[in-house]
Amino acid sequence: MTRSIATQANPSYHDLTAALHLATTTAQSTAQYLAKRLACDLNHGQQVSKKHSKDVKLQADIHADQMITRQLKAHSDFSIISEESTNTVNTTHQALYWVIDPLDGTANYRQGLPSAVAIALMNGQQPILGVIAEVSTGTIYSGSVQHQAMKNQTPMRVSPIRDRQYACLLTGPGDYHHQVAQWASYVQQYQMVRMLGSAAVSCALVASGVAHMYHERKRALWDVAAGYALVRAAGGCGHMHQVGPYEFDVVLAGHPVLLAAHAGCFS
């Protein structure tokens, strides 16, 4: 691929097609690297780069970030925001830029549980393209505002389920310590509630119709940007409410009735 993806506020179908191909091949190759590295690390021990509270960073995170950044910079002129870098981008005025999470769910990854590579293309503060590559399975989820959402090579759609008593909610520990009773009452309205340990994988499962709702507070932009774009490309809906620098409260749903039922629950 040549260095031809144009930097402009309203990308053409051709430009988004090129960007989607670049993001897909980059995420796929990075996920394959991480899978091979995990097999080796399980035998020889994993190198921990840093640990803050419960947030573990491995050398694998750093190497994956370098792989993705190098590939994106080689074939596009967009700025890059990454979990593992200190780059800053004015998200209000910057037209197009990449947002990447080289390994979402590092703690999961260490245990062989679901983890993923996530790459999004943003237009201002709106995710317009997303690719999520699961490390353990090799499954690739992709889509954009101009492209049908795909699971590997098969089109995917969100689930038509609209009643919470039949729906699966994916979530995380979040920040509900001031609303424990309200949160407990809320989640009991769903048939199932699961915490997977990876926001990217959770969003991909909503986009593919396996799950029906995702909600979490104070998630980093790189955790959810690709998933937000995927859910929208798959016919779903959602909101991202900024609560801090690169930090968002997020709710995604396969059906608008589920989204409406959620509205106002945790404002």
Describe the structure concisely for a colleague:
The protein has seven helices and 14 strands. The protein is α+β, with helices and mostly antiparallel strands. Strands 3-4-5-6-7-8-9 form a seven-stranded mixed beta sheet, with helices on both faces. A five-stranded mixed beta sheet has the order 11-10-12-14-13, with helices on both faces.
Structural class: alpha+beta
Number of helices: 7
Order of helices and strands: HEEHEEHEEEEEEHEHEHEEH
Strand content is: 25-35%
Stretches with pLDDT under 50, minimum 5 residues:
49-54
How many strands in all? 14
Shape: globular
Largest sheet: 7 strands, mixed
Radius of gyration: 18 Å
The overall average pLDDT, rounded, is 87
Q: Helix share of residues?
A: 25-40%
Give the termini separation: 45 Å
Please state how the strands of the largest beta sheet are arranged side by side: 3-4-5-6-7-8-9
Give the SSE layout.
Layout: H1 13-44, E1 48-52, E2 55-58, H2 59-75, E3 79-82, E4 96-104, H3 106-111, E5 116-123, E6 126-134, E7 140-144, E8 147-151, E9 154-155, E10 168-171, H4 180-187, E11 192-195, H5 199-207, E12 213-220, H6 221-233, E13 237-244, E14 247-253, H7 256-262
Parallel strand pairs: 3-4, 10-11, 10-12
Antiparallel strand pairs: 1-2, 4-5, 5-6, 6-7, 7-8, 8-9, 12-14, 13-14
